[in-house]
Amino acid sequence: MDLGAFSVSLSVRDIEASRAFYEQLGFTAFGGDPAQNWLILKNGDHVIGLFQDMFEKNMLTFNPGWDSSARPLGSFTDIRDLQRELKERGVAFLMETDEAGSGPGSFLVVDPDGNPVLVDQHV
Fold it and tell me: What's the structural domain count of the chain?
């Protein structure tokens, strides 16, 4: 099962302080809008998202249909197919995507330790 590009989404208190810290570690901004309290940073193939006041906990994020530079892939497993397969495996969902839809969608599951895992398709 290919869940797509991986990143860590961090819930931060001060997006500019977090940006400055991760830039010291060699990350550079390549997406987002700090004025809207979100920013995506990259260091090689490593991607982190900074999100101020958007969610309570840090979470793992997967993006079907994207590579690590947020470029659309020619082929990928659609989020609705991933959701159906995970349901068949007995995974419980906190949030689901509309299985009758197409294009963008997302679902949210939580691991046994309470860590949220977001699968968020943008294409």
Answer: 1
Give the range of the structural domain holding residue 15, as residue numbers without chain letter.
5-121
Quick one: three-class SS letters along 49-65? EEEECCCCCCEEEEECC
How far is it, in rounded angstroms, from Cα 28 to Cα 40? Answer: 8
pLDDT tens, residue by residue, 59-87:
999 999 999 999 999 999 999 999 999 99
pLDDT in tens, 81-121: 999 999 999 999 999 999 999 999 999 999 999 999 999 99
Secondary structure element (H or E) that encloses residue 5, with its range: strand 5-12
Q: Is the pTM of this model over 0.90?
A: yes
DSSP codes joined into one string, 53-120: SS-SS-EEEEETTB-TTSPBPSS---HHHHHHHHHHTT---SB---TT--SSEEEEEE-TTS-EEEEE
